[in-house]
Design goal:
heterodimer; A: Rossmann fold; 9-stranded mixed beta sheet; about 25% helix; B: about 325 residues; alpha/beta; Rossmann fold; 2 domains; 7-stranded parallel beta sheet; 5-stranded parallel beta sheet; 9 helices; 18 strands
């Protein structure tokens, strides 16, 4: 099988962000970057299929400046076979522009399966996978938490609010990956060494004209400091009183 | 003055609350544009047309109903084709969807088919001239972006619970329509929708959320959380990532950066320390209560009210007190 996985380099979220001088981007100084968690699970899903069918080839694609090569190498060190960087100064917010660039590349690859993470935490929009599928004219199942592939067809599960959907689809198809599908393998030392020699092609990203533009970024207002009502069960009556009279939620 | 399209989400023959929120949001946009019409689209199995009048009550001038035996389950391809055709023919200023599991699936497909971009998880919107400007959380809610949408129509998906469905009766002319493609020919087929835990309120929609963490020590102790939820009567139960990773609760219950985002009226954190990745999923809750035995736990920094204490002692007492309080209402 030929499998593609689209991955994004994202900052670690466990920090206090600062807004950059341009007011429309986050100040990247001091931020740590890694592959988006959902995308790592997407890579794992592809590698699991390759584990079962050694003839499979897994291609990892990332859009952005040269630093995304680190993200691609990470996926290669997990076991993917080759990488493609779609070179752009930065990944824009506009999901359609990104989907256009990715689908232009993906349509030439003859892939049986194309994986995406269901969303990235930085832009938090979650649209590039299904938009790419639509542009490619391929069947698409989003936010899958289980997957079985057999003889040109697949079955996946999606988590809904208080329910699950069982979905059947033919290959080739686009799938976006939710948490719960798997746990991403850690690169081995051997994998890291091997990744350095794997092919990584660089091509210009054919980004379309953006239709949505970030005008301004702001930090949300801080929650006002709360208070500890008391200790142990003895504090329950006072908490209930506050919920009734002050917060008015009971 | 411009018309606005709204997609009304359903499950089986039920209209979902987020669907009514989409209609309400579309009505607000139409009013802001100087008083256009709202055209709502609703798809479902036989029985769904009986729900059309309800959609009119929330501000739809026209309710297009697509009732088909092949739509017992959500069909992404039928919904995409039908919504895109409707939107194309309507010359709309905007098309409003929901940021639900279904809306996250549908809105980007429809937008791509229309050749326009899409912004999901929209917190609020304004109209400036003929541009729609929305607010959208980034970096797990730690940054709020103001985004201008130049595309026509502007396709947006509202975050659940930010706009309360508002009664605003309009004509609600019902128009019956056929799906744009035969459901039998769809390539992707939802063969089953499994309801999880009958009658339970959903996390995104419940006015009260009670969430449990590692402090509960074992899966069976979630009964404490469930008892408190049942005392409220309008509460859903959630969990931290540590708990769902350990298999105490299903992944679908996880509140946090990689899980569900909730913003209820009242959020009660039971035995939750308050890791960043958890706070990302609940920090916009209106009132936050935390019960934890560690007085230095980060959860107390975001909690409006905290009790430092043993959850096994405090939660049963709180459950009894809430039961008592509810009795007097």
């Amino acid at each position: 099988m030929k499998i593609a996985v689209c991955v994004k380099r994202v900052p670690d979220m466990d920090v206090r962000f600062r807004i950059g001088a341009d007011n429309v981007s986050v100040d990247e100084a001091g931020l740590k970057f890694d592959i988006n968690d959902f995308d790592a699970w997407a890579v794992e899903a592809a590698l699991k299929l390759k584990d079962k069918d050694a003839g499979s080839e897994v291609t990892v694609i990332s859009l952005g400046p040269d630093v995304v090569q680190e993200t691609i190498r990470k996926a290669l060190s997990m076991g993917a076979d080759r990488g493609i960087q779609l070179k752009a100064d930065k990944a824009p917010f506009d999901g359609l522009a990104i989907a256009k660039a990715l689908s232009a590349e993906l349509k030439t690859g003859g892939y049986d399966l194309i994986f995406f993470g269901k969303m990235s935490p930085d832009s938090s929009n979650g649209v590039v996978g299904p938009m790419s599928a639509e542009l490619l004219g391929l069947p698409c199942v989003t936010a899958i938490s289980s997957l079985e592939i057999a003889t040109g067809r697949g079955t996946a599960k999606r988590e809904l609010e208080g329910a699950q959907e069982i979905v059947e689809f033919p290959l080739p198809a686009v799938l976006t990956v939710d948490e719960g599908l798997n746990a991403a393998r850690l690169p081995s030392l051997k994998g890291i060494m091997a990744a350095k020699k794997k092919p990584l092609e660089v091509k210009p990203a054919q980004l379309g004209e953006p239709q949505v533009t970030v005008r301004k970024l702001e930090l949300p207002p801080e929650r006002k400091a709360g208070r500890v009502v008391g200790e142990g069960a003895a504090a329950v009556p006072e908490l209930v009183r506050l919920l009734q009279t002050e917060a008015k939620v009971l | 003055m411009a018309n606005v399209f709204a997609f009304v989400e359903t499950r089986g023959t039920d209209v979902r609350k987020v669907g009514l929120e989409a209609v309400t949001a579309a009505r607000m946009l139409a009013e802001k544009s100087g008083g256009g019409e709202v055209h709502a689209l609703i798809l479902g199995p036989p029985g769904i047309s009986a729900k059309a009048a309800q959609v009119g009550q929330y501000g739809a001038d026209t309710v297009v109903v697509v009732e088909h035996a092949g739509l017992v389950n959500y069909s992404p391809e039928v919904a995409t084709a039908t919504a895109a055709d409707r939107i194309k023919s309507g010359g709309y200023l905007a098309a409003v969807f929901s940021t639900s599991a279904q809306g996250r699936d549908l809105a980007p497909r429809v937008a791509a088919r229309l050749g326009v971009s899409v912004v999901t998880d929209v917190l609020s919107f304004e109209i400036e001239g003929d541009t729609i400007v929305v607010r959208h959380p980034m970096n797990i809610g730690k940054v709020i972006a103001t985004i201008a949408i130049a595309a026509k129509p502007a396709v947006i998906a509202m975050r659940p619970n930010v706009i309360a469905p508002a009664q605003n009766a309009k004509a609600g002319r019902v128009e019956n329509a056929q799906p744009s493609i035969d459901p039998a020919t769809a390539r992707v087929k939802v063969i089953e929708t499994r309801q999880g835990g009958g009658g339970k309120l959903d996390l995104a929609e419940a006015p009260v959320v009670i969430a449990g963490g590692r402090g509960l020590k074992a899966a069976e102790n979630f009964k404490l959380v469930e008892d408190l939820a049942s005392a409220f009567g309008n509460a859903a139960v959630g969990a931290t990532r540590a708990v769902t990773d350990d298999g105490w609760r299903p992944h679908s219950d996880q509140i946090g950066q990689t899980g569900r985002l909730v913003s209820p009226e009242l959020y009660i954190a039971v035995g939750i320390s308050g890791a960043v990745q958890h706070l990302a999923g609940m920090r916009t809750s209106k009132t936050i209560v935390a019960v934890n035995k560690d007085k230095d736990a980060p959860i107390f920094k975001v909690a409006d009210y905290g009790i430092v204490g043993d959850v096994f002692e405090v939660i049963p007492a709180l459950t009894a007190a809430v039961r008592e309080a509810k009795k007097h209402h």
